[in-house]
Amino acid sequence: MKPNPALSDALCWGQQALTQSDSAALDCRVLLCYVLQKPDSYLYTWPDKALNEQQWQAFQQLISRRQRGVPVAHLTGEREFWSLPLNVNDSTLIPRPDTEVLVEQALQLAQAESCILDLGTGTGAIALALASELPSACIVGLDKQADAVALAKLNQQKCGFHHVEFLQSDWFSALGERRFDVIVSNPPYIDEQDPHLQQGDVRFEPLSALVAPEQGLADIRHISEQARAFFNGSGYLLFEHGYQQGQAVQDLLVALGYQDCRTVKDYAGNDRVTIAKWI
């Protein structure tokens, strides 16, 4: 390819280079927009505009790193979730679209002034998405990892929400006497032997945020047991989990005394979020 290609030519080159990605076209657009610091519409408006040498070199380097499997979100340092532009890094999970199902279900159950707890908050995506829709709610996000808490606080400042609090805590350990109406969590739920851990973006994410013993159910069990003491009398518990875990999570919750258990499917039609009520 000639030096300094047009935007359309650069996109074609990038797509051909990313033969191992199932989202090559999208990856290229996101990375080229990041290099240009322009919105996606710019690529369609100015397809014949040539990259300068610095931009072309930067784009080639990003495509090379993407070829090695580095997630696009790590390359750009940002991922949109619930229309919020969130900073991301390799200390936490990258927010995924299916997690928005958890947010949707929590919003259906929460009241305007509910107290809501987000366990294992990571980037703060779930807590901040809820905050964007519930400006009068009291929302707390907890994470065991100090780096994750720092990142969540940075995203809080970026979004400008002042009714969210992020704390470092080993699950419930830092809460004291605080009580909640809704508790949500996207905890580690992947089985330690799952072969998917060696594939895709998860290779670059912390295992501590992905895997759990007991075929991925250990942290869900622990949270379910402990959460009963942290409800404001009664309340709702919501988990994101694996596509094959819906019934197992329901059975676990029923055995612990929760009621009205049900599982909601994600956008691909897979079991993704299980909800239960503590009375």
TrEMBL record:
It catalyses: L-glutaminyl-[peptide chain release factor] + S-adenosyl-L-methionine = N(5)-methyl-L-glutaminyl-[peptide chain release factor] + S-adenosyl-L-homocysteine + H(+). GO terms for molecular function: nucleic acid binding; peptide chain release factor N(5)-glutamine methyltransferase activity. Keywords: Methyltransferase, S-adenosyl-L-methionine, Transferase. S-adenosyl-L-methionine binds at G120, T121, G122, T123, G124, D143, W171, N186. One of its GO terms (biological process) is methylation. Residues 9-77 form the Release factor glutamine methyltransferase N-terminal domain. CDD domains: AdoMet_MTases. InterPro entries: DNA_methylase_N6_adenine_CS (IPR002052), HemK-like (IPR004556), N5-glutamine_MTase (IPR050320), PrmC_N (IPR040758), RF_methyltr_PrmC (IPR019874), SAM-dependent_MTases_sf (IPR029063), Small_mtfrase_dom (IPR007848). Its EC number is 2.1.1.297. It is an enzyme of class 2 (transferase). Residues 99-194 form the Methyltransferase small domain. Belongs to the protein N5-glutamine methyltransferase family. PrmC subfamily. Methylates the class 1 translation termination release factors RF1/PrfA and RF2/PrfB on the glutamine residue of the universally conserved GGQ motif. This is Release factor glutamine methyltransferase. It comes from Motilimonas pumila.
